[in-house]
Amino acid sequence: MLRRLYDWTMAQASAPHALWVLAFVAFIESSVFPIPPDVLMIPMVLAAPRRAWLIALVATVSSVLGGMLGYGIGYFFYDTIGQPILEAMGKAEAMEAFNGKFNDVGFWAVLIAGMTPFPYKVITIMSGWTAMPLGTFIVTSIVARALRFFLVAGLLRAFGAPIRDFIDRYLGLVFTAFVALLLGGFLLVKYL
């Protein structure tokens, strides 16, 4: 089934309505869909490099809006089902402690998930579940998703098809290394 979804997504890249399909895929990927929008975005930018920034913008806006849906799923699912179950089990206090810890680092969690191969949908739902401040979630999502999609679009626009293999193989690793260096730098400054 996953292969059929992937093949369908790839086939949409050359369709006349590809931007709408990209918007839809980026939206639902942020909360439930297993295929990342990059799969659709990469062939679209390669086919029309002059539209790279528009394609990245559509992916960014749609992904953030979809992330807000994921946030809503986490927020409302927890309140209606999760919390009563935890209270019945006597675990409500443990969940409150977890929520506080997650929200203390929530900015970083959303930033990392939005830029790296870690499934963004997990963090969008968890952000709602822990009641992370919505403003923090939205701003961080915009920054993370824009960095990711505009960097991919820029690389493809500048270097064309030869950079595609690099993006497919190493971009997630590069983003992960960047975030690790950034966090390491903050820790170094804090403790020196």
Automatic annotation (TrEMBL):
One Pfam family recorded for the sequence: VTT_dom
Presence of the UniProt keyword Glycosyltransferase in the record: no
GO cellular component: plasma membrane
UniProt keyword list: Membrane, Transmembrane, Transmembrane helix
Transmembrane segments: 20-40, 52-78, 105-123, 135-158, 170-189
Residue ranges of every copy of the VTT domain listed in the record: 35-155
Protein name: SNARE associated Golgi protein
Organism of this sequence: Tropicibacter naphthalenivorans
